[in-house]
Write a structure and sequence with these properties.
The complex is a heterodimer of chains A (288) and B (235).
Chain A (H helix, E strand, L loop, with lengths): L1 H31 L6 H19 L2 H24 L7 H23 L14 E3 L2 E3 L1 H23 L1 H11 L1 H6 L4 H26 L6 H15 L5 H22 L4 H15 L13
Antiparallel strand pairs in A: 1-2
Helix pairs in contact in A: 1-5, 1-8, 1-9, 1-10, 2-3, 2-4, 2-8, 2-9, 3-8, 5-6, 5-8, 6-8, 9-10, 9-11, 10-11
Chain B lengths: L4 E9 L6 E8 L4 E5 L6 H9 L4 E8 L2 E2 L5 H7 L1 E4 L11 H6 L7 H11 L1 H4 L11 H13 L5 E5 L7 H14 L5 E5 L3 H7 L2 E6 L2 E7 H6 L1 H8 L4
The chains are: A mainly alpha (288), B alpha/beta (235).
Chain lengths: 288, 235
């Protein structure tokens, strides 16, 4: 029982990360209207930037900010050079282009940092024991980072003018334009925000596990799954679904083994979609 | 006559085929102008051309003497063209207040939102509700309020009564009539030409992408040719 509680706790941590990645996916889908396959590799880039930043400054917090900033910058570059030009084309064209962007980022990371695994220099800390359940202080810190990031994203979306405009464009892009909202400004804010979220997600994954050029790509499918499970375009849904998938994966590991735990999360996804085709929180389809 | 909106020799359409074929139209300040005509005459296309939503366009559209033909949609909105679409006229997931606050190019935004709530009291009571929860009539009020946020010089209404239940049509026309009091000129695209002309100053009847007849509302209502060909006998 106690080991299950520990697995579940672990699941919450990895689920929050999946949720963060799914949030980046769902933001882009809701506003730019395509599934951005480069999300995972922007995470990788964020992790490497955070690793370099932490190495330079000796501070993990500053490293994480490096990761977020690098994600935002690459998000903006990707928009400006690639996705901006594809505006108005089919979402399949943008999806394929994003796969290309993903491969490019991964190749650059491989050349720049090598293909070996790197780890963040984390101090060894004895886990706490709460009701006989082992709780790692690092995990608690990572949860806090994810929750703060989520709070910032939701505050931007709901409390700032640009966030309101992003939600308006997600609702109805042409009505947004006739209301004087510049699509380009909203897109730049979106890509910077989604990139920063991906950068933080990558940093958290890197701290929790290892940093390698493939790390983000491997998280892309769970992130897509969580975005769909939560109801595509629904920011809160992405987080809840990410946590749910994370817990299912971890708790199932003793039964199905490490190799199949990802497959299991897709079984959950399929089962939920059979009952609720729009996902857990989805209402009407966002795309028109 | 000094026009607030002036349209000259407008041609264009969605693909290769021209739907507008050299259309000229003038709108005076604070005037309500009804644009009527059969389906396919180019009414909605004209609205899109004024808003900047038409992919292919030649000719000129001027707002208060400034050529806005090449301005993108959002810049025209900020320059003073308000638009109430026929359907999809609110942001459903935003609250009523957010629907108004999201509009760009509004000076004194908070005060302007309160002015809108005075103008449309039904909205004030539900300002925190999501726009998606509103009825058709309430949505239209919100759409009017959103379009008026920028204190527009011209408001384009695309068949405002088409999606409403018959009981709401009269209320909607009364609301349109009161728009002129805000100082905005109204370009009213409308199928229900008789009812529309009753609240309008002038009318223009389109045929084949041109203005086939135009004149004061009274003249058009009394004209047999207009009535028979374009207005429909009953509506």
């Amino acid at each position: 029982m106690i080991s299950f509680a520990e697995l579940a706790l672990n699941g919450i941590v990895s689920g929050l990360v999946i949720g963060l990645a799914a949030l980046a996916v769902t933001l882009v889908f809701g506003i730019a209207r395509f599934a951005n396959a480069a999300t995972g590799d922007v995470m990788t880039l964020g992790a490497y930037a955070a690793l370099s930043g932490a190495g330079l400054t000796g501070s993990l917090v500053l490293g994480g900010l490096f990761g977020a900033a690098a994600g935002a910058v690459v998000g903006l570059i990707g928009y400006w050079l690639v996705f901006r030009k594809l505006g108005g084309r089919s979402s399949v064209a943008a999806l394929l282009a994003s796969i290309g962007v993903a491969f490019m980022i991964r190749a650059v990371m491989g050349v720049a940092f090598g293909h070996g695994q790197k780890v963040f220099p984390m101090p060894m800390v004895r886990p706490w024991r709460i009701l006989d359940i082992r709780v790692h202080p690092n995990d608690v810190n990572l949860c806090a980072v994810v929750l703060v990031t989520l709070a910032i994203v939701f505050a931007i979306l709901h409390l700032t003018p640009i966030g309101r405009q992003m939600r308006a464009v997600a609702d109805d892009p042409s009505l947004a334009r006739v209301s004087g909202i510049s699509p380009q400004k909203v897109m730049m804010a979106l890509w910077a925000l989604a990139g920063a979220v991906s950068g933080v997600a990558g940093t958290v994954v890197g701290i929790k596990t290892v940093v390698s050029p493939e790390m983000g790509w491997e998280l892309l499918l769970p992130a897509f799954a969580a975005a769909i499970l939560g109801g595509i375009g629904h920011a809160g849904g992405a987080i809840v679904a990410g946590i749910a998938l994370g817990i299912v994966q971890e708790v199932a590991t003793p039964f199905v083994g490490f190799t199949y735990k990802i497959a299991l999360s897709f079984v959950v996804l399929l089962a939920v979609l059979l009952v609720r085709p729009k996902g857990l929180f989805g209402t009407v389809a966002g795309a028109r | 006559m000094s026009s607030i909106l002036s349209i000259r020799n407008l041609r264009g359409g969605y693909s290769e085929v021209d739907i507008l074929n050299g259309l000229d139209l003038d709108l005076a300040p604070a005037e309500i102008l009804v644009v009527a005509g059969t389906n396919g005459a180019g009414k909605s296309t004209l609205a899109k051309a004024v808003l900047g939503l038409l992919p292919r366009l030649s000719g000129t559209v001027s707002l208060a003497g400034d050529d806005i033909t090449r301005l993108p949609v959002e810049a025209r909105a900020r320059a003073g063209i308000g638009y109430v679409p026929q359907v999809s006229n609110v942001f459903p997931s935003l609250s009523i207040t957010e629907n108004l606050a999201v509009v760009e190019g509004v000076t004194g935004q908070k005060a302007r939102i309160e002015e809108m709530f005075v103008l449309f009291p039904a909205l004030a009571a539900r300002r925190r509700s999501r726009a998606g929860s509103l009825s058709g009539g309430e949505r239209q009020q919100l759409a009017f309020a959103r379009a008026l946020m920028t204190r527009p010089r011209v408001v384009v209404l695309d068949e405002p009564t088409a999606a409403l239940s018959p009981a709401l049509v009269e209320e909607s026309f009364a609301r349109i009539a009161s728009l002129a009091a805000t100082g905005a000129a109204v370009l009213l695209i409308e199928q229900r030409a008789r009812q529309a002309l009753a609240i309008a100053h002038r009318g223009a009847i389109l045929d084949g992408g041109r203005v086939a007849m135009s004149g004061s509302a009274e003249t058009l209502l009394a004209d047999d040719r207009a009535a028979a060909l374009y207005l429909g006998q009953q509506h």
